[in-house]
């Protein structure tokens, strides 16, 4: 029995974290575990990156788990020619030096993947950049690529007994 080619493609997309029909992401955004990600190969400051993401109804990516960090690293490595590392994430210690929070929610980071001797606490290194999956505190006015993230809502079908009007 031969397997239809479309079935293989759907399986591949599901396994790779791409859109699987379970959530809705805008065009050019990548779905993975409840979020949509937009990889921006525009070299800019942390503040510029954050502003751009907000203009897209999203935030700089908040890397909350090792699985998410690995996904971002693998995805960027796969497309290295069009999107180079390093990239900004939403974390900052601008409010209180050494206390890292997600800028979009002001909640403390519970997951870290610091590189060797990081964070090193150099003066004015208040933003985090990720390079090859490892985190580094840098000056926010340095220029990096960035990733925007927006949480997804599951696509739902009308429940039994409901009607569509219009």
Describe this structure in words.
With 166 residues, the chain is of the alpha+beta class. The protein has one domain: Mannose-Binding Protein A, subunit A (Mannose-Binding Protein A, Chain A, Roll), CATH 3.10.100.10. 20% of the residues lie in helices and 25% in strands. It has 3 helices and 8 strands; from the N terminus they run αββαβαβββββ. It has helices at 5-15, 46-55, 66-78, and strands spanning 30-32, 35-44, 59-60, 87-92, 101-102, 127-131, 134-138, 144-151. Strands 1, 2, 3, 4, 5, 6, 7 and 8 form an 8-stranded mixed β-sheet that branches. Strand 4 and strand 5 form a beta hairpin. The longest helix is centred in the middle third of the chain and has 13 residues, at 66-78. Mean pLDDT is 83; it is low at 1-21.
CATH superfamily: Mannose-Binding Protein A, subunit A
Mean pLDDT over the residues: 83
- Helix share, percent: 10-25%
Backbone structural class:
alpha+beta
Largest β-sheet summary:
8 strands, mixed
Write down the CATH class: Alpha Beta
CATH A-level architecture: Roll
Describe the global form: globular
Compressed to H and E, one letter per element, the order equals HEEHEHEEEEE
Number of helices: 3
